[in-house]
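User: Predict structure, ligand adenosine-5'-triphosphate.
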Amino acid sequence: MLKINNLHAAVDGKAILMGLNLEVGSGEVHAIMGPNGSGKSTLAQVLAGRDSFTVTDGSVDWDGTDLLALPAEERARAGLFLAFQYPVEIPGVSNAYFLKAAVNAVRRHRGLPEYDAMDFLARVKAEMKAVGMKEEFLYRSVNEGFSGGEKKRNEVLQMALLEPRLAVLDETDSGLDIDALKIVAEGVNRLRSPERSMIVITHYQRLLDYIVPDKVHVLSQGRIVRSGGRELALELEAHGYGWIDADGKAAAAASGARS
Amino acid sequence: MSTIDAWVAHQRERACQLPGAALPWLARRRADAIARFADLGWPTSRLEGWRHTSLAFLDQQALAAPAFAPHPAFALATLRAAFDEGDHWLVFVDGRFAPVLSVTGMLPAGVKAGALSEALNSAPDAVEAAFGSADDSASPYALNLALCSDGAFVHLARGTALEQPLHLVFIGATGAADTHLRNLIVADANSEATVVEHHVGGGATLGTVVTRVQAAQDARITHVKLQQQDAQAIHLAQIEAEQARGAYFASHSLSFGARLARNDIRTRFAGEGCETLFNGLYHVDGRRHVDHHTLIEHARPLGTSREYYRGLVDGNARGVFAGRIIVAQDAQRTDAIQRCDNLLLSRLAEADARPELEIYADDVKCAHGATVGQIDEDALFYLRARGIDTDHARQLLTYAFAAEVIERIAHAAVRKRGRGLLLSSLPGGARMEALQ
Ligand SMILES: Nc1ncnc2c1ncn2[C@@H]1O[C@H](COP(=O)(O)OP(=O)(O)OP(=O)(O)O)[C@@H](O)[C@H]1O
Ligand SMILES: [Mg+2]
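Assistant: Predicted complex:
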């Protein structure tokens, strides 16, 4: 269970998250939607431990641990996974080396034996097949020269390998063709389980046809301004965000009536 | 004993025992060279090319042969294990050829590779033509000429090719406080070879080495320098090439060791359509200092030069790069690219990267850039977000930054050796061995 309480975060003195509250239960999938620049990626990065953002107030409790007290790598080892909106290119480090180092760091932490080269290859090849990635991507530098869609698949591959307890997917559907979207959605659905929670950030209700969320939230100007079931996504698709007033708050009547 | 007068006296004493002492042309060049050295003294920061690398301290420096060193055969075995059986080896210990340790039995017809000291006996005219003078070189290289006790003499006849690399290994053991080596590589038309210079050991000694390459028409010579000397050594080196029409020359310089390492690397396109690659990597930490001064002289048209240097500067160390490119008025349709990028790994580390382009032709493509920066925060976070600890992530990114240089070495075994050296010089390198 993830409990975000009154979270405030800033970058270079500029407030971005301004009192965000959100609870995601075990086994639940929550979708977060919202206009560009509303703070969705900031929330994702703060959860993952990016220290260029300063948390100025609030707390995040994750199954009884104070998430914000852990450095990024420990959060990842404890089972938090962020699929980046913009995966980073790392020239000179092969994807194979990177994936193995990541998987083994997580396995060490969980008291599992580290994979040797053979076991790792067998495992990673099976997972790559599932997300439709050719083997050559193992031997290329991490994300370097990957197309937008290939980068997103590489994120889903990492998620599958790391078997997180909490996965945050930041626009993993952006830039995907319709076939890739299905593959990515299948990858996510395969991981759905009663112990695993997911936060899926997206601009398109289309994704939610494949990954059916338990709840949908609207983030605006650093706060959740509306929450609802999956029908909220359809409504947003039809009407856009025009109903959010200039202060970033949903018209009181609308939010009161529908959430 | 390092004062200038002492060096002059020392040279006078040693001269009669140096190889080729009986050859009048050589005696004359040595005499001119020591006179030039006496006249110039050690370069100080007052000289433009030595602004960041003054050698004035050598005036007071006591030099001593190391009291202990691994047996040269042991040092050599480690090196040889990294390479193919068929490679060729010329080994020098404390500035002298070590025939017992050398392996050159499998050289193809038309290729000669042996000690300079022997070539001065057997083929003095060929040596004279390739030897060079100290007329316009910096004073340490004049000292080198005056005192050089040995080195390699390599001759590739027209159309010959060495498939396996020729390794020149210079081991500093317990026998000398200073060594002065001169390597001459003469490549006739259409010949081809990869020559790898390894510098190991050395204790707190002073070593000078000059390597001269003459690449005749359409010859292809790749020179790789692997400098991994002891952390107290002083290493002063010049590599100078001259390329005839259509010749290719690559210089790879990987500098990991020594307290102070200075490399002056230059080539001149004496004919049309020459091509060169200057590729370099340095890693310095502690209070160590490394300096690469390069010069590519596009004297004739249609030349292509590519220069890529990268530096890792840690601790209180300093890395210096100055890359000069001259495009003569006649050198139309020159295509030159130069880059130097440095990673500062500590707050006290210092890097200077200075491009110097002098372009006198009008139809040229020249690009250059120099950066001094830190590890990319986005990449660091990406790795940490996958559970990789901060130290390992930093080391990995540092390795990756540097390895790009090594990937340009065409020969697979040499490239692998380069990666191995990089890993062993980086903290935490052992756990990244899979990257090799
Ligand atoms: N490093 C930064 N420096 C300054 N402003 C920043 C920084 N990072 C984010 N911001 C600002 O914070 C706001 C929220 O950005 P964020 O990336 O969280 O938005 P988002 O909801 O993910 O948008 P999108 O839908 O376009 O991905 C934006 O106005 C952005 O410009
Ligand atoms: Mg975003």
